[in-house]
Amino acid sequence: MNSVQSANIPITWTPTEHHGKNLKIFKKIIEDKYLVKLGGYEDLYKWSIENICEFWAETWDFLGIISSRRFDK
After folding, report:
1. What is the per-residue pLDDT across 10-59, written as a single tens digit (0 to 9) for each?
2. I want to staple 55 with a disulfide (CB 3.0 to 4.6 A). Which of 15, 20, 48, 50 is the partner?
3. CA 73 – CA 62 distance, rounded (Å)
4. What is the pTM of this model?
5. Cα-atom radius of gyration of the chain, to the nearest Å?
6. How does DSSP assign 58-71, residue by residue?
7. Are the C-beta atoms of residues 47 and 55 closer than 8 Å to each other?
8. Contact 30, 44 (CB under 8 A)
9. What is the DSSP string of 11-53?
10. How far is 54 from 12, CA to CA, in rounded Å?
11. Superkingdom of the source (predicted)?
C-alpha cells in the first residue's frame, strides 16, 4: 500500500491524552514502594513476573478489588 492509498483509509482510533495514565500511575506506585526504576511497560512486566505475589497484592489495592477476604500471597 502506498501513501496515496493509505490517505483514503479513515482513522478508526486515536488515543486520548489520558491513554495509559493509569498504567503510569501504577508503575510509579511500584517504583516508589519497592525502590525500583521501571523504564517502561517491559520493565513493569519483568518486575511483575519476578515479584508475582507483590504484583498481585498491588494490583488488588490499585484496582480496589473487594472480596470477602484480602489477597493472600
Report:
1. 988 887 887 889 999 999 999 999 999 999 999 999 999 999 999 999 99
2. 48
3. 16
4. 0.72
5. 18
6. HHHHHHT---SS--
7. yes
8. yes
9. P-----TTTTHHHHHHHHHHHHHHT----SHHHHHHHHHHSHH
10. 37
11. Eukaryota
